[in-house]
Structures are given as C-alpha cells and as structure tokens.
Design goal:
Layout lengths: L2 H4 L6 E5 L3 H12 L5 E5 L15 H4 L4 H4 L4 H7 L2 E3 L4 E5 L4 E4 L4 E3 L2 E4 L3 E3 L7 E2 L3 E3 L3 H12 L3 E5 L3 H12 L3 E6 L11 H13 L3 E4 L3 E7 L2 E9 L4 E4 L1 E4 L3 E3 L2 H5 L8 E3 L10 E3 L4 E5 L4 E4 L3 H15 L11 E6 L2 E7 L8 E5 L4 E7 L5 E7 L2 H13 L5 H5 L7
Parallel strand pairs: 1-2, 1-7, 2-3, 7-20, 9-14, 10-17, 11-12, 11-17, 12-13, 19-21
Antiparallel strand pairs: 4-5, 5-6, 8-18, 14-15, 15-16, 21-22, 23-24, 24-27, 25-26, 26-27
Length: 414
C-alpha cells in the first residue's frame, strides 16, 4: 500500500458488499478499531454473517444452525450499528462517483468500499443435467434444505471428489445413508494433495462404505425412468447409477464481476496487495474472492479457507482505516471426515521429497515437505494437531529440519 493511500482522510461511510465470514470480520474489526461512522452491509442472503465450514458437516447433519455458525450473535450485531441491506444484491460500482447501486435501484455513496463477495457453486452444464433433483452446497439455506432431504433418503450420489464432496459423503454415512462418489480425475483431491494422501482418502471412504468411482466422466444426469423423484447418472463408459438425489461439489465460481465491470484488476480473483487494497485506493477486497500477495509464500495466491476469510478480512478492515497490518500468514486448511481430522499448512511443492512420520494406515501421521536448505514448506497432519502446531513454529522461524528425527516416530519432536 502506498504512503499516499495511507495518508487519506478517515472515512465517514464504509460499505461492505457480502454477508459471509469475511464480511462479518470486516464489520467487527472496523468497530473494534474505533470506526464510528456509517457502516452499511449489502448482502444477498437474509442471515447474519456466518462461517461456511460447518455447512457440509454439522449443519448438514442437523447438529448446527445459524445460532451456532454465525460470526456475530444477534445482540453483538446490533451493537455494531450496521445498516444491513438484505436480502439485496449489489449491481454496480461507479468508481468516479463512489456509488454502489443495487439491483432494486437503491444507491449509496461510500468513502471506502470492501468487496467480500466470495463465490457461488460451480454448476454442471445444462446439456448434462436433465433433472431438478440436483443440489449444490454453498449457502446456509442450501445446507439446511439438503440436510432435511439427506436425512429422509436412503442413497445419495455425490458428483465431485474434492473436499466438499467428500465431506458430504462422510456426513451421509454418519446418518446411515448410502453414498456414491463420482470423480472425473484419477484421484481424490488431486489438485490440493499428493497421491499418498489421495490414496489415504480413498481407503478411508471405502472403509466407511462409500462407493467411489475415479476417472469417471458424467455423461448425463436425469430422472429415473418411471420415477421422476429420483435420479439416474450415466457415465461415459455406459455405467448407470441410481440414487434418491444428487449433490454436486465441482468447485467455486468467483463473484468477481462487480469488480471487473468497474474496471478493477481481476486475475483469478480481485487483485489486492498484502493489506487488501485493490487497484483503486478507495476499494478493498478480502476472502475467497481476493487474490493477494502472500509474504510467507512470496507469491500471489487466492485462498478458500476459514483462516483466510477471517484474518485477511481483519487486515483489510485495518487498511480501510489507514492501519498498515499486512496479511502474510502461512496458509492453513482443515477437513473433518469420519474419525479423521486432516490439516494442511503452507505450500505443498509437487516435486518435494515427502517425509512421512507415523502410520497412515492407523490414521495418525504427519507428512513433511522440506524445501530448499531443508526448511519446511508444507505439512499435512492426520489426527496430529500437536505436530502441526510445532511445524507452524518451525516454518515461521525458517528453521531447518532433520529428516532422520522427523521419521523417528518413537521420539517426540521438540
């Protein structure tokens, strides 16, 4: 962020577009940092800002609701004195006038604007889908509706073997529902973990009764003949799979058109600096939709994680008020499936010589990814939060590791 940007006068009106976790933390941080001006949130959902990780687990299983997943409780939100325009969708940004216009025609002028619009579930092609009995999971309402349907069903088809798809399958099995996973790639979560972890996930789901089809291209999804309430998937090899309904988890489509239409720099997300500032000094972005320069990775990255949604939002809110607090944290992600807590920290270089500590078959292991000069670049911990915490300290310090010590699971790391 330039010094000229930091010297701008304190804003009197801040507008936040979005109503998810990142937006919630922007609102909380602005007030915590002493902002006393007008604060407006434009969100297309009617709920208070909430966290998304529980949607595919606790909310889907019926164990959680808005009261347990919201970023701020109703009384706390009231105390923030936010003008909540919801459900309302921002339609355009006039940067010259500093005005946001909504689809209903309302307009508001801003001194600073924060875009935290996240994304929506990527849709399967209309040419393939010939049934309304296909569901997606991104919003609280979708999770609640899907959970009710899941608990009343016997068999669900999950299209996509990424994190969302696997968590849905795990939740289904927890509820006693049969689950079939169809993944077009040759392995599960292939874009985010090495093959050894993909194989671990495959074994984990098959051990829990999930029927997993890899390298399986979906040719069509339609109603079952004679029963339009159920679905039939036909794969490219002619295999047919029948189920009560289908859920697709095939990635995220970014809500970045507001920014690109306004002429902001967009490249795999809204381009921001380490503090969340866009190419317009009055506009900031954070969360899933923001592509930032990460000081620890030393490159640009767009992250879809709970930690990023919270902590990048905090940095952006401070930057709105002229406080330079770069977001340069080590990327962190986790997934809970069955009795497994899997956490990923840092970078996972494809060419890394992985050091495996512990026993994957016993579901307790840590995979270390040493980089140049044996400094850790990444870690995957399976049911081992202690070693992940220790690795985080080493990575923050840039400390070199001893491969022999890492591999000796009989001796505790320190």
């Amino acid at each position: 962020m330039s010094e000229s940007n930091m010297r701008q006068a304190a804003p009197s009106t801040v507008v936040v577009i979005g109503g998810g976790q990142a937006a919630g933390w922007v609102l909380k941080t602005l007030r915590a940092e002493g902002f006393a001006g007008r604060l407006v949130m434009i969100a297309d959902e009617p709920h208070l800002p909430y966290e998304r990780p529980p949607l595919s687990k606790a909310v889907l299983a019926g164990d959680a609701n808005i009261d347990t997943v919201c970023v701020v409780r109703p009384d706390e939100f009231d105390a923030l004195k936010v003008e909540a325009w919801q459900p309302e969708r921002a339609a355009s940004i006039d940067r010259a006038r500093r005005v946001v216009k909504t689809e209903s025609g309302r307009e508001i002028e801003y001194d600073r604007l924060v875009i935290a619009t996240g994304g929506t579930s990527r849709r399967l092609p209309d040419a393939i889908v010939k049934t309304p009995n296909l569901h997606y999971l991104r919003t609280l309402d979708e999770a609640a509706a899907l959970g009710e349907k899941l608990r009343a069903s016997r068999r669900v088809l999950v299209i996509g073997g990424g994190w969302i798809g696997l968590e849905v399958a795990a939740t289904a099995r927890k509820l006693g529902v049969e689950a079939i996973v169809v993944e077009g790639a040759p392995r599960l979560c292939g874009r985010s973990v090495p093959k050894i972890v993909s194989d671990f996930l495959l074994n984990l789901h098959r051990e829990n009764g999930v029927d997993v089809h890899l390298g399986a291209s979906l040719a069509s999804l339609e109603a079952q003949p004679g029963d339009t309430s159920q679905v039939r998937a036909t794969l490219a090899d002619g295999t047919t799979i029948d189920a009560d309904f289908a859920v697709a988890g095939v990635g995220l489509a970014l809500n970045a058109s507001l920014a690109s239409d306004a002429g902001l720099a967009v490249a795999d997300g809204i381009v921001v600096d380490e503090c969340g500032a866009t190419s317009d000094p009055a506009i900031f972005a954070c969360g899933d939709v923001a592509n930032h320069h990460n000081g620890w990775l030393k490159r640009r990255v767009r992250l879809e994680s709970w930690a990023n949604a919270q902590n990048q939002a905090i940095a952006a809110a401070k930057a709105v008020l002229g406080v330079h607090a770069p977001y340069a944290e080590i990327p962190w992600f986790w997934s809970d499936q069955y009795d497994v807590n899997l956490q990923i920290l840092g970078d996972l270089p494809a060419d890394a010589d992985i050091v495996v500590r512990g026993d994957l078959a016993a579901k307790r292991a840590t995979l270390f990814f040493p980089g140049n000069e044996e400094q850790l670049r990444g870690v995957i911990a399976i049911n081992n939060a202690r070693e992940l915490k220790l690795a985080r300290k080493w990575m923050s310090q840039g400390r070199a590791v001893d491969r022999a010590a890492l591999m000796d699971a009989a001796k505790a790391l320190s």
